Amino acid sequence: MATPRITVRPKQSLGQNFLIDDNIARNIAKSLKLQSEDIVIEIGPGQGALTRHLMSSPKRLIAVEIDARAVEQLRSTITAKNVEIIHQDFLDISLKSISKKYDTKIRIVGNIPYHLTSPILFKIFDEREAISDITLTMQREVAQRITGSPRTKEYGILSVFSQFYGIPKLLFNVSPNCFYPKPKVTSSVIQLLIRDELPGDVNLKLFHGIVKTVFGKRRKTLRNGLLYMPFEKEVLENIQNSTDPVFIKRPEELSINDFILLTNYIQQLLD
Ligand code: SAM
Fold it and tell me: How far is the CA of 127 from the centre of ligand 1 (A)?
């Protein structure tokens, strides 16, 4: 195991668990099968453990790092012409404008801070038209939620949105020993191909509202969980009186397609 010297003192508040296993970094980079025309954004390059394995192939690698100490170090050590190191919060980057600038969809990769997994994913879903695929290293437990199937305890909000907007695949697990400092949990590398076309035609705002609300009341049947939606009395009554068997199910029993049908059914009541 080659251990790059850690000179940036890790800050827990920035989720800094630096990768110290060069084989894992190489395998993550390899899994992208980078092409010479690719435009890649790396989220949180840190000291560049992964960056070094990514930079030789793509047309452009844009590494977005929030920590000034890491940015300074990266800029002094990585000078390849196709690599741009941006000192910014990834959540504030416009993926759409980068995609527009290069006239292509972007590929995203990163060993991301655990506490930012959901905000990063939701940003990507929001700007999905700009993105072709993402390869992220995250807590194994979150990766299992992303790939979770109906009727399992992992299945929830992240599963529905990840599988609605993309096609997720768990690539491999990474031991805590591969990071410094050593995290308490195992990590997983997950790849998500972003769909060009969504699996259903649906009012996205309503779809998001329904999925979040009913999983927020996970133990309740849909009939009861949907009472927490801000609908007019008439709509709520209609749901309460409906004989459609879907309403006596719990959210974890619904497939992605069932959620699409449910949203469209409720949309009709609202129209
Ligand atoms: N990629 C490096 C590696 O594998 O060793 C670092 C991984 S570390 C888990 C996460 C990195 O994300 C840190 O370098 C941290 O400073 C950076 N980071 C944290 N929040 C960020 C944000 N909002 N935008 C960009 N980078 C961020």
Answer: 20
